[in-house]
Amino acid sequence: MSKRLQNKVAVVTGGTSGIGLAVANLFAAEGAKVFVLGRRQPELTAAEKTIGNGSVGIQGDVSNPADIDRAYASIKEKAGRIDVLFANAGMAHVARIEEIDEAQYHETFGTNVAGVLFAVQKALPLMHAGSNIVVNASMWTIKGVPGFGLLSASKAAVRSLVRTWTSELKDRQIRVNAVSPGYCNTAAIEHATGSYEGAQELLAQFALNVPMGRVSQPDEVAKAVLFLASDDASYVNGVELFVDGGTVQV
Ligand SMILES: NC(=O)c1ccc[n+]([C@@H]2O[C@H](COP(=O)([O-])OP(=O)(O)OC[C@H]3O[C@@H](n4cnc5c(N)ncnc54)[C@H](OP(=O)(O)O)[C@@H]3O)[C@@H](O)[C@H]2O)c1
Question: Distance between alpha carbon 89 and the CA centroid of its chain, in Å?
């Protein structure tokens, strides 16, 4: 059987860890040449080796539009086009309304909203009819859980942008979709809790809320992203595909 992204050029922001790395690995296994963006150079160097198939790591912060310009200039020089963009890089602060400060607000919206918006806007000159964009949102787009206000609002914003871009890019025949993962076992959980043990404890608590009784692994989200990014989803446009084990569906 032919590979689903054979000879495609794919870009994954935040492609050195968690869901982004799983997607980059799967895209490469399906034949794509993958460019991954991230802030930490050692992680980029390690990811290039793991992903293989001529993958290239480019250092940059998606919340800085100049870094995105530099990254795409390099991709234009090396590959000339982008067939698939997975706008994935994101972060979270857990803080209730009484606790949110300005720095948390600006970091969350700078990374999760501006970082996605400009990663998409600046990729468009390299994209063509038949190419497509997948934005990583979150199941929290449609919930109001204490402490998750900033994250939920930022992810609801990008989910909304996906609707608008689906209309705006129709004449260019570029599909745009969102994937909305539920609880996923990634380094982000460890960053939030500050330790491996804390992360395992939190993931066990999360699992109690999931109809399937467990959190997801990054590979399970990656398979859904591959579907959206491939011709298997040739008539799928503007959707938010929840990969949450049913958590916000019941
Ligand atoms: N894990 C979950 O339960 C879950 C659930 C729903 C949605 N999501 C979403 O999934 C996405 C990936 O999260 P993850 O859980 O896979 O996290 P992760 O394992 O911590 O990976 C985050 C990736 O993004 C990169 N990154 C972060 N900030 C960046 C920035 N400003 N510029 C460029 N790269 C940046 C990181 O590399 P550097 O640190 O080196 O930059 C890393 O490669 C996020 O958008 C998150 O909101 C996660």
Answer: 5
CATH topology of domain 9-186+217-243: Rossmann fold (3.40.50)
Task: Give me the pLDDT at residue 192, please.
Answer: 82
pTM: 0.98
- For residue 163, what are the contacts with CB-CB under 8 A and spacing of at least 6? 238
* Number of the ligand 1 atom closest to the C-alpha atom of 155: 47
| Phi, psi (degrees; rounded to nearest 5) at 167 | -70, -45
Ligand 1: residue of 44, 51, 88 to mutate (most ligand atoms within 8 A of CB) is: 88
Judged by average pLDDT, the poorest of 25-29, 92-96, 136-140, 170-174 is 92-96
pLDDT digits (tens, 9 = 90+) for 33-48: 999 999 999 999 999 9
Cα angle 7-12-13, degrees, rounded to a multiple of 5: 155
Spatial CB neighbours of 170, under 8 Å, sequence gap ≥ 6 = none
Ligand 1 centroid–CA 11 distance in Å is 14
The average confidence (pLDDT) of the chain is: 97
Single-letter residue type at 73: A
Interval 120-136 mean pLDDT: 99
